[in-house]
Fold this protein.
Amino acid sequence: MSNKNNLTPKLAKLHLIWSMAEQGTAVDQLDHRSNEFKLLKKIANESGEVNLSFRNFLDYRQNNPKFLNWAIEVIRVHNDIKYNKEILDNLVAMSIVKKPGENTHILTKEERDFLFGIEIRIIPLKQRYLNPSQILKAKNQKKDNEFAMMLLLWSIAYCEYSPGDVKPVSEKERKLFNKIIKDEKIDLKLFNIIKLRKKFKNNETKIVEYACSLIKTNNKIFKETCLKYMKDIAKISFENGSNPIASKEQELISLAEELLFAPKKNK
């Protein structure tokens, strides 16, 4: 028989995350094929719960009406602030997955109330975010940075080709692109790169300018990483002896460097 003692901190976390998926969503719309469960499974694998059964997971919730209170109690007893703040980040991530294709994310009232309710129960007062929007702001900035990085790399890969070309990206470029996505843990399903490129009519200069405008972080390492990846893509797309980077690609890289590292103007 199921009871509170079946809950480990890892499973308790998963139940909190799935409860976010259910906020404002009909339960019958959520199944093992949904993006929400794919994210839950990904988080479960990263947590070591590799044998998560969707059916057993839902049966536990159905058979134990107090599962949410139990989950919160288990997390509180576990008493790991870093772990608990990761849970809040996971809750926001689940909210984002529920709304694919949106470049700017907004929590619904149900999601915001749920997030705030969980925070006040698992995070001590002095260590809480001032409000749930702070979590969202940090998450949105991370998402903007990742989207910008992808736009910059695509601009380099596409700049030597005409819009009508059937296969503008080489196999070498695609492999490197996929490696970067894996290394940076970027979820491409969250972004609609093709739609954005069409909006700017595949004008690489305007796309680079827009991408750089999304990067509002002062993190020098992130900006340098973007430039490094741009150069890496450029080098394998244009192999010409002593001049490994094509002029068009170098212009875009120089533009990105100028925009990312331009000194701030005094207001």
User: Anything to note?
Assistant: Residues 132-158 form the longest helix (27 residues). DSSP finds twelve helices and no strands in the chain.
